[in-house]
Design goal:
Blueprint lengths: L13 E2 L1 H8 L3 H9 L6 E2 L5 E4 H13 L17 E12 L2 E8 L2 E8 H7 L6 E5 L11
Antiparallel strand pairs: 1-3, 2-3, 4-5, 4-7, 5-6
C-alpha cells in the first residue's frame, strides 16, 4: 500500500523518487502523482520520505515502454527485431576482451556475453535501463 512502512523492504532495494522517475522516463511531479493515485507503491522512511521499491520500477518498466510510445522518446532504437525485452542492468563484468551483462526483466535474469569494447562504449552500469534483443530463428518451449 502506498505510504505504508513495511518490514523487510530495505532488503529489496529502495530508490529515491528522482532515481525511480529517471529509470521510468517520467518527471518527478509525475511519480509523486502516481504515489498519491496509488499507481505505484512506495515505502515511507523513518523521516517520512517516500522510497520506491526496485521491483515496482521493474513492474512499470514494461507498461511505460508500451504505453504512449507515439509521444515519448523510444527507449529502444527502432529495429526489425521484435523480441526486445526491457529491464534493468544488474551486473556488468568486464574481463579481457569480453563482458558479461546480466539484465533483470520481470523477475527473471538474462545474461549476455558481448565484447568489452561494446560494454564500455554503451557505458553500461548496474541500475540502468537496457533492452535485451533476442535474435533467433528458433524458440524452444520447455514445460516446467
Amino acid at each position: 500500500m502506498p505510504g505504508s512502512n513495511q518490514s523487510g523492504a530495505s532488503s529489496e532495494g529502495l530508490l529515491k523518487l528522482r532515481d525511480a522517475a529517471l529509470q521510468l522516463g517520467i518527471s518527478f511531479p509525475t511519480i509523486k502523482q502516481w504515489i498519491y493515485k496509488r499507481k505505484i507503491r512506495s515505502v515511507r522512511t523513518a523521516g517520512g520520505h517516500h522510497r520506491i521499491p526496485q521491483r515496482e520500477v521493474d513492474r512499470l518498466l514494461f507498461r511505460a515502454r508500451d504505453k504512449d510510445e507515439s509521444h515519448r522518446e523510444p527507449r529502444v532504437r527502432r529495429l526489425s527485431g521484435r523480441n526486445q525485452l526491457v529491464g534493468r542492468v544488474e551486473e556488468v563484468r568486464i574481463s579481457g576482451l569480453m563482458a558479461e551483462i546480466v539484465i533483470s526483466i520481470g523477475g527473471q535474469r538474462i545474461t549476455s556475453i558481448i565484447t568489452a569494447r561494446s560494454a564500455r562504449e554503451m557505458q553500461l552500469k548496474p541500475g540502468q535501463t537496457a533492452a535485451a534483443l533476442i535474435k533467433s530463428t528458433e524458440v524452444m518451449i520447455l514445460r516446467v
